[in-house]
Specification:
- Its EC number is 3.1.3.15.
- The chain is α/β, with parallel strands linked by helices.
- It has one domain: Metal-dependent hydrolases (TIM Barrel, Alpha-Beta Barrel).
- Helices cover about 40% and strands about 15% of the residues.
- The chain is built from 9 helices and 12 strands.
- The strands form 4 sheets. A 6-stranded parallel sheet has the order 2-3-4-7-8-9. A two-stranded parallel ribbon has the order 1-10. A two-stranded antiparallel ribbon has the order 5-6.
- α2 links the parallel β2 and β3.
- The longest helix has 21 residues.
- The radius of gyration is 18 Å and the shape is globular.
Length: about 300
């Protein structure tokens, strides 16, 4: 039952499209059995708003997130006979309070999981547009190595403080520097982060959005994915959809990528026997699942 645990909707995210219900309906149409809803957690300072959100206030984002949770739980009940939805959030790592904010939101709203992502370095978005990336780079003394180091240090902070069940788009920092060669120092930080996530049981998502932005592979790129595999890391898959039209985006490429990387076992989140807690389950011979018939 291939799945996705990373999604957004235009109803609750300014850079996505469509309603959350339309996203769920499309996931059902494309025969997903498990689908994770993971809208962005709100930002609590005006300086952390994305350019697309400048017409809003942090309080608006908080209200929007609350509305998202209510709608997600409604859809979970409405479509429970057709699909298993789990409700979570995609975290931010912006400043020293970001981890606490994400954990508090999870507790307050009784969420199922946290998708641990990093979108900021030096409190500046690095995957929103090239202009913002350039600002983050400038704050790193225009030194790509320092920028990459800061990104993976921020990721390590998230892993240590939040311990997200799923590690989101591991190397999204490569979005505007796809050909930059990882240095030994950066590579050591990558290994550190992989080891830490493996130790606490996190899953590494193979995120098809890498192809959307023109990278050769899904996130993470194959050098990092090979390292994850060699260390025994457990992988899941995500479409990082931003509306109904991108549900299952590039899963045809994903099938081929998994096969090329010889990944035949995938892992996914599901409810435990108590019907509340999240557990990690294994899907062996994942590429043999009938789900892939529509993509191959």
């Amino acid at each position: 039952m291939p799945f996705s645990f990373h999604s957004h909707s235009g109803q609750f995210c300014e850079h996505a499209k469509g309603t959350l219900e339309e996203v769920v309906q499309e996931a059902i149409k494309k025969n997903f059995i498990m689908y994770g809803l993971s809208e962005h957690c709100p930002r609590y300072r005006e300086q952390d708003l994305y350019p697309e959100e400048f017409h809003l206030k942090p309080s608006d984002l908080i209200d929007t997130f609350t509305a998202y949770v209510h709608e997600a739980r409604r859809l979970q009940q409405k479509y429970q006979s057709q699909i298993t939805l789990i409700v979570g959030l995609e975290s931010e790592t912006i400043n020293s309070s970001s981890s606490t904010e994400a954990l508090c939101l999870k507790s307050e709203h009784n969420l199922d999981y946290i998708l641990g992502s990093v979108h900021h370095v030096h409190e500046t978005p690095i995957d929103f547009d090239e202009e913002q990336f350039a600002i983050a780079l400038k704050k790193s003394s225009n030194d790509e190595e320092k920028l990459f180091e800061a990104y993976f240090d921020a990721q390590y902070k998230t892993l240590k403080e939040v311990k997200p069940l799923i590690v989101g788009h591991f190397d999204v920092i490569r979005i505007y520097r796809p050909n930059w060669q990882l240095t030994q120092t950066v590579w050591e930080k990558i290994q550190r982060n992989i080891d830490y996530a493996i130790d606490y049981g996190g899953l590494f998502e193979i995120n098809t959005a890498g192809w959307k932005v023109g990278l050769p592979d899904a996130y993470p790129q194959r050098d990092i994915l090979q390292l994850i595999i060699s260390k025994g890391g457990r992988c899941t898959i995500s479409d990082d959809s931003h509306g109904p039209s991108t549900v299952g985006r590039d899963y045809d490429k994903l099938y081929k990528y998994l096969k090329e990387m010889e990944i035949y076992t995938l892992y996914y989140l599901d409810y435990g026997d108590d019907g509340k807690s999240m557990v990690v389950k294994e899907l062996k011979d994942a590429l043999e699942h009938k789900f892939w018939d529509q993509w191959t």
